[in-house]
Design goal:
Strand content: 5-15%
Order of helices and strands: EHEHEHEHEHEHHEHHHHEEH
Bound molecules: guanosine-5'-diphosphate-alpha-D-mannose, manganese (II) ion
Structural class: alpha/beta
Helix content: 55-70%
Number of helices: 12
Number of domains: 2
CATH architecture of the largest domain: Alpha-Beta Complex
CATH class of the largest domain: Alpha Beta
Largest sheet: 7 strands, mixed
CATH superfamily of the largest domain: Spore Coat Polysaccharide Biosynthesis Protein SpsA, Chain A
CATH topology of the largest domain: Spore Coat Polysaccharide Biosynthesis Protein SpsA, Chain A
Shape: elongated
Radius of gyration: 26 Å
Distance between the termini: 37 Å
Amino acid sequence: MKKAIIVIPTYNERGNIKPLIDSIITTTSNIPNWEIGILVVDSSSPDGTLIEVKELQSKYPNVHIIETKKEGLGKAYISGFTYAIEHLNPYVLFEMDADLSHNPKYIPSFLQKIEKGADFVIGSRYIKGGSIPSNWGFHRKLFSVCANLFVRLGFMRLSTSDWTGGFRAIKVWVVKSALTHVSSYSGYVFQVALLDFATNKKAAISEVPIQFIDRTAGESKINSIQYIIQTFLYVLTHSSFIKFVITGFIGFGIDFTFAYLFISFFHIVKTTANMLSAEVAIISNFFINNFWSFRHKKIEGGVFGYVKKFILFNVVSSGSIVIQGGGLALLLHFFGDRLISLGFISIPSWIIYKILIIACVIIPYSYILYNKVIWKK
Ligand code: GDD
Ligand code: MN
């Protein structure tokens, strides 16, 4: 028998916790090879959530409780995981919401994935068979979809579809190795941090579809603004993306500096000087990206590997020059070559067009190709 502990954080879930535990016990009492325990992590809910849980404990001996201060969802999970590891001897730890948004009927399918070798099973709302509530307003749906897309693209890990959800089954070795990393993330961003860490640790990630049900009792504790900012910052600081953008700026500086040097000091013809300076920038970007931005995917295969990737890098870079030229020609043709007034100053329209092309086309184009062609794993 292997043991799975379902960790359920609660804050003011008095109307939900009893039906949830009843339903977990009924759906999991007969899963072959698995013994199920429940650990409620309550942050001293003023509504008396724990009164309900304590009543259930006399009926179900496998229901455990810990009480914590109210320090956010991430901190509640960290306390729960730590307690379970120290006292309950689990093989797998589950994350699950208390508000009946996560239906216990899916628990057996999570465990099947674990038995087939997965280390980290995600209940996904964004794969076939999964869903977000149809009664959610347009904004909430859009927000949920965009947040996940942002994380997927920011990390360039397209194969995982639900980064933010909170219904998961995780092998204990993954949780143990992640505890130090995630301890800095006390809020909802904890979910992204944990999955990011597990992916970096090469945990086998697997997804099962779940239909997320909107809660009917109590209310959500999520602070959307804080959550958006923290997730945004997490992805920026933990993906290659921000380094890639900084490298782009350095390249820009190198291109200008060398063009200036070649023209003013070596008296090289302007067009030739600019082609040379562009190539200097391409060479330096290639190395900065390889040894910094994409360090974790450094090019292998000796000199031959480098030559091959360097040629490809030049092809991709030429592509951006063509896109910039073509894009600028199109925008100038359709929107005109004029001065655009920004209140206090007027800027030639081509500068605005160039910035737009770089931000909206060149950056995604290069980032995707660097990841998928040059620094692919
Ligand atoms: N102990 C404790 N302490 N529990 C908390 C705290 C806290 O500070 N904050 C929230 N919880 C509990 C709630 O009581 C609930 O059981 C669960 O955590 C989820 O909280 P909700 O407030 O219902 O969150 P949600 O429905 O908005 O968020 C869901 O979707 C998010 C984004 O996809 C959850 O599944 C999140 O985990 C997920 O990140
Ligand atoms: Mn909820």
